[in-house]
Amino acid sequence: MVFEKQLEKIVHRCQDGERAAFEELFEMYQPRLKYYVRRLDSGVVNADDILQDIWLTVFKKIHKLKDAQAFAVWLYRIARNKVYDGFKRKERFVRLPEEDEFPVSGSVEPVFDANDAEKLHRALNELKPYHREVLTLSFIEQMSYQSIADVVGCSIGTVRSRIFYAKQSLREEMERQSG
Amino acid sequence: MDNNKKLFEGLLKADGINPAGATESEHIAFRKMLDEQSKFKQSKSSIARPDIWRIIMKSRITKFAVAAMVIIAVLFGVHYFGGSIDGTSVAWADIAEKVQKIPTVVYKMKTEMAGLANMPKDKVRTMETVVYNSLEFGERQDSVIEGRVLSQSYRDMPNKLIIIVQPLAKQYMKMTLTDQQVSKFGQSNTREIVKHYVEFGYTKLGHKNINDIDAEGIEVNDVRILGGTFETLKGQLWVDAKTQLPVLMEFDCTADNNSVHTKLTMYDFKWDEELSKSIFEANIPSDYKLTVQGKMPDMYDEATVFTGLKLFAQMSGGKYPSSMSMMTIVKEGGQYAMDKHAEPNQRDMLDIGGAAMFYGMLVKEKKDPAYYGNKVTAADSNTILMRWKISDDQYRVIYGDLHTEDVNAEKLAELEKAVK
What is the ipTM of this complex? Predict the structure, then answer.
């Protein structure tokens, strides 16, 4: 909650055009944004170029953001669009297939231990892109299903389903890598 | 720390990202973008922001100049500045010794260059570099030009490698080092340079206030302090009077008969900073192209000077560099390369620069070298081009056609009389 309040204030200061606030925002979000962009694109596109374009858009458009609390969703939507614009230019854009709705209520999702972060990172890179994306948002931002749905542009049910299958795949991949 | 936060940090670290914040080079690039946007807003233009980088890189001259800057940074990063301190006052020698022992340092370096690759003398290109140095892990330099990360250069001493990643060009160079190169480079050129300020005879500048720090300074005018990279040089070193640690180093240098002008400012020193191993590990995206590999030019191998001079003569139609300063060689070589090639060839530029490194080593090791490239061409098969001492009474001579001969002092005097 403290973080959200602090972020809200920084966003308002950015909207007032305060340069130092932009630098604070950059310091806060650049590392996690870089991780997200790299996971979306697996290093095929120049991540530094994309990140620069994302921040340029943030600088130009932040005054249009109505709800400062929605900053993270807004930022990741910009990032996603920039990466997919790059895909389109390279003619390798493929619409992501939808997973089925969450199949069995009460199914237990796997839980991941932070001590396995390295293994998790390696396994994450082996997942299907749409699985990798929702898990990345969940792991690095602890975003709610609704927020992830807003970033990805699909229904909350699809996100719930996608995360369920993604976590299962991730667990399997980790086990496979452990031999 | 809760599991979520620990997981977040662990994932980012596994990808070579510092979860605590953006890197210094990213901050520099971001600030540059903010500066450009502020200027743009002030001009009240409604046209979309042009991508300055893409515009400047359309210029062939700029492309070659930028390639040359990368090469100079690489060669400079592995230059040999070693030597012993003698003939100085105890206080300044103590400072030099002190910085040798501090395990880590981070600082910023601003490089302003004019006159490279046919660029007009008044057109200054500015490169901002963040240098991370660790006695244990080696050195990393992130360089930003026009708001973009131009290169990330890794001096990986444990693995005897030099890796230069160029994100804008999506390419990288990877070169191996010999054991001798590793041992002679030491772990930090910065520390060696501080030592040289003391070694090469200085004048005291007294005190001045630098960012609220009472600093004490000295000045040197000896080109050897930067390993003979330039033809003229004025350097100032300022140390914190209280901590006795450097806070500012400045160099104002020229090469190629004053046509190349370079200002180097090293500032914002953070001594004994905590630096993790991951900072020094190159993270190369899978689609980056490996453009240069093999051995780094070896300044201790005589073949390096022949390779460099031969390449230069091939490009120039038989001419040699007018002097053996690294800046002169890279500048003149770059100009001939522009006449011959559409794109810069960084392997050739490195090998040409290697000749200067060999010569710089001869100067440093007091081998009494001399060079006559401003008067001798490849057609002058019996005229002395270069010489250095190989024993008390013997000199090795390279002639215009690049054949060699070992001569005594008497014969050398005759050869040099003919060329002077």
Answer: 0.90
